[in-house]
Amino acid sequence: xxxxxxxxxxxxxxxxxxxxxxxxxxxxxxxxxxxxxxxxxxxxxxxxxxxxxxxxxxxxxxxxxxxxxxxxxxxxxxxx
Length: 80
Fold this sequence. Notes:
Elements: E1 7-11, H1 19-28, E2 32-34, E3 43-46, H2 52-60, E4 64-65, H3 67-79
Parallel strand pairs: 1-2, 1-3, 3-4
């Protein structure tokens, strides 16, 4: 699966995805969604009005992606 063993944290709101839909996409691809950012977080999916989770991700050097980047990662993984 595309995101096997990877942990995502969701923050903010996205143009077309609900939090439930984003979680379902990530979990369907084998990933896990966590409520807090740590050094073990692989990606933070950030949208409008992202707050302290975005700041913590940046301070820890965790990659921050948006909705389009999430879809690209999924598409690339499914092609592989």
